[in-house]
Amino acid sequence: MDDRLFRSAMGKFATGVTVILMETDDETHGMTANAFMSVSLNPKLVVISIKENARMLPKIQEAKKFSVNILSSKQEEISKIFAGQIKEQEVTINRLMDVPVIPGAIAQVVCEVSAEHVEGDHTLFIGKVTNITIEDGDPLLFFSGKYRSLEELVEV
């Protein structure tokens, strides 16, 4: 099967956009990701997926804690910064339970790594959720290779 066909088909699944943050040696590290999902309500677990050659892989293995920041529709620029599309721009970082988080994200989910599984060319990290904050707002979406926003429905 052609890689491009597979990527195109997976791009037809609309996702939210997250920034994964962790800290090692008093330095914050982050990456934009849409490979995120909830796994279990009891216990509260989520999963993130990180490519085997990503510079973030050893960082999360060392940190053993991370946050998933679900971005609002107003945070496209933050997504691009952590995706490496915008260089040398500072992002304000807050802390929740001593883990870095993105202020203004519509959800901040703090996790401890409870397991990791290598599958294909990615490592899946299972995170035990230790804290959550939420804010009102619309999510930043990604569909068919482009950022998207929810459109308000207007009744006629």
Describe this structure in words.
By secondary structure, this protein is mainly beta. It has a seven-stranded antiparallel sheet, sandwiched between helices. A three-stranded antiparallel sheet has the order 1-11-12, with no helix packed on it. The chain has helices at residues 3-10, 56-63, 76-82, and strands spanning 15-16, 18-24, 27-33, 36-40, 45-51, 65-70, 94-96, 99-101, 107-119, 122-134, 140-143, 146-149. The radius of gyration is 16 Å and the shape is globular. The protein is 15% helix and 47% strand. The protein has one domain (3-149): Electron Transport, Fmn-binding Protein, Chain A (Pnp Oxidase, Chain A, Roll).
What's this model, at a glance?
By secondary structure, the chain is mainly beta. Helices cover 15% and strands 47% of the residues.
Task: Summarize the amount of helix as a percent range.
Answer: 10-25%
**Number of domain units:** 1
Give the biggest sheet.
Answer: 7 strands, antiparallel
How does the helix and strand content classify structurally?
mainly beta
From the structure provided, what is the oligomeric state, counting identical versus distinct chains?
Answer: single chain
CATH architecture field: Roll
- The CATH homologous superfamily is termed Electron Transport, Fmn-binding Protein, Chain A
Order of strands across the biggest sheet?
3-2-6-9-10-5-4
Question: Which band does the percent of strand residues land in?
Answer: over 45%
Q: Please provide the count of β strands.
A: 12
Distance linking N and C termini:
46 Å
Mean pLDDT: 92
Order of helices and strands: HEEEEEHEHEEEEEE
Q: What value does the Rg take, in angstroms?
A: 16 Å
Low-pLDDT ranges: 152-156
**Shape from CA axes?**
globular
CATH class: Mainly Beta
- Kindly identify the CATH topology: Pnp Oxidase, Chain A
